[in-house]
Write a structure and sequence with these properties.
Largest sheet: 7 strands, mixed
Radius of gyration: 20 Å
Oligomer: single chain
Mean pLDDT: 94
Distance between the termini: 27 Å
Structural class: alpha/beta
CATH topology of the largest domain: Rossmann fold
Helix content: 10-25%
Strand content: 15-25%
Strand order of the largest sheet: 1-2-3-4-5-12-13
CATH class of the largest domain: Alpha Beta
Low-confidence stretches: none
Shape: elongated
Order of helices and strands: EEEEEHEHEHEEHEHEHEHE
CATH architecture of the largest domain: 3-Layer(aba) Sandwich
Length: 264
């Protein structure tokens, strides 16, 4: 493994790894040769997240950036505001089990930590698919509080009344989810800004919590790094390319084969 900030030489090319702030261990990669430095961001976010190292702006000549939410319409609310919505819902509907959909790596642990940081000290129940990753986060010093398995086979569904259950979104389309007591479906994703997506997914409580930059954060990052050229990939490339051109920055879309899947 290579540590953040460490530089290695590969066939005359200097390679470095820098925090991306996306999930625990996520890294940008810089490559440098003959005075030219290129940085590939990978997935990244700029918001504060106690479950991973924060994004590091790395000066470079060419910046390869994602653009998952690369449209001016995307302005993400503060995560603590979205977390407060969930806590308010629990108080309003104490008879219902709140099922929170969150991707197993990064998002689930972030949602759990957000709940803890907002004062929720009750046990949080997790789907089995999250157990190993949550254990790993805890082993890395990230406090997630009291986590318990959401095992229905050994419990009456009413035992989860008023509880929070976190699991991968795919699990909520299965019979597993319908066995809880009056389940209220929530989903933590930047895409929950799009109401139609929430409606189509049967999401009753959309939580706009993203592990990607919104439009203002993408612009802020490019301004900070001040590259000579920007290559845009994975998302809404055209708008960000156009903005760069208006700023006098050379830019182009970089279409990567097999990299069309949406993030959250």
């Amino acid at each position: 493994a290579v540590a953040f900030g460490e530089r290695v030489e590969v066939n005359g090319v200097t390679v470095g790894f820098h925090p991306a702030g996306h999930v625990l261990g996520s890294a940008q990669i810089s490559v440098e040769m003959n005075g030219l430095r290129i940085v590939a961001s990978g997935d990244y976010k700029r918001g504060i997240d106690p479950t991973c190292a924060p994004f590091e702006s790395v000066p470079c000549d060419v910046f390869i950036t994602e653009a998952t939410f690369g449209l001016p319409v995307f302005h993400h609310p503060l995560p603590r505001v979205e977390t407060a919505k969930l806590l308010t819902s629990i108080k309003q509907f104490p008879e219902r089990t709140h099922l929170v959909g969150a991707y197993s790596l990064g998002k689930a642990q972030r949602v759990i930590r957000l709940l803890r940081d907002n004062g929720y000290a009750e046990p949080i129940y997790i789907h089995g698919a999250l157990a190993r990753l949550c254990d790993y986060y805890v082993s890395q010093g990230i406090d997630l509080g009291d986590l318990r398995p959401a095992t229905l086979e050994k419990s009456d569904p009413s035992a989860f009344k008023g509880a929070i259950v976190v699991g991968p979104p795919s699990a909520f389309q299965e019979r597993w989810a319908r066995r809880f007591n009056e389940p209220l479906i929530a989903f933590a994703s930047g895409w929950m800004m799009v109401r139609q997506r929430a409606k189509q997914g049967g999401v009753e409580l959309p939580l706009v919590i993203s592990d990607h930059c919104d439009w203002p954060e993408l612009l802020e990052t490019i301004k900070e790094i001040s590259p000579q050229a920007v290559w845009v990939t994975h998302g809404r490339e055209e708008a960000l390319v156009r903005w760069c051109e208006l700023q006098g920055i050379a830019a182009k879309p970089l279409h990567l084969v097999g990299y069309e899947d949406e993030g959250d």
